[in-house]
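Dear Dr. V.,

Thank you for agreeing to look over these. As mentioned in my earlier message, I'm a first-year student in the group and I'm still getting used to reading structure tokens, so any feedback on how I've presented them would be very welcome. I ran two proteins. I've put each sequence directly above its structure. The first is here:
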Amino acid sequence: MAEYGLYGAMVRHSLPLPDTIVKSAKDGIDTSCAPWLLGMHRKSLEAAEQLKNMVKDDDDDDDDDDNCSSTHSRKSPIQIAETMKSESIATLRAKAQEHNAKRQQ
């Protein structure tokens, strides 16, 4: 559970990964000193890249069809980010509850 708290604090305060952890991952995530943390960091970078691509594609589509009524029903990048954030929090919470249930058995 400490990893969830550490990662949450890092995300909340926009803290970068420590250099020692990044350097330990040069041989691969599995052999690093913090594989779970590096995996979560990689996933967040992938999600940020995907969001950036979605925003870029949305901007390109808006330029092509400004009069289309479907553009009004699309979510803004902020709404998309909030949805992704709440879904990831819900996923983490579910994983934590599963882990606690397994420990209590």
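The second protein is here, in the same arrangement:
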Amino acid sequence: MFIINRQFFNGEGRTGVLVDKFLGKEKILNLDSANAYNFTDTNVAASYDVNRFLIIFRQAEVLAIRTIDFQAKRITNNEVSLKWKPSEGKRY
């Protein structure tokens, strides 16, 4: 079993992924706490290869969005119709 300590991992918009190359699986890591990953090795060399596991960090991409025009219209007390579209205004 791996216990992955999250110290210094967390960052704004960052996602961590544990890749098990032998099984071809990915596990999203919780960057706010420790993570456990159970695994076994077999008589197949790739199951105990030093490069079996990999941690990848992905940073959320910032979308280039212009200002957005919103229109909200109440339909009933519990329903609202919301329409939006990018305007030709300033890019953010």
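From my reading of the second output: The beta strands are 2-4, 14-20, 25-29, 35-37, 53-59, 66-76, 79-91. The radius of gyration is 22 Å. Does that match how you would interpret it?

Kind regards,
E.
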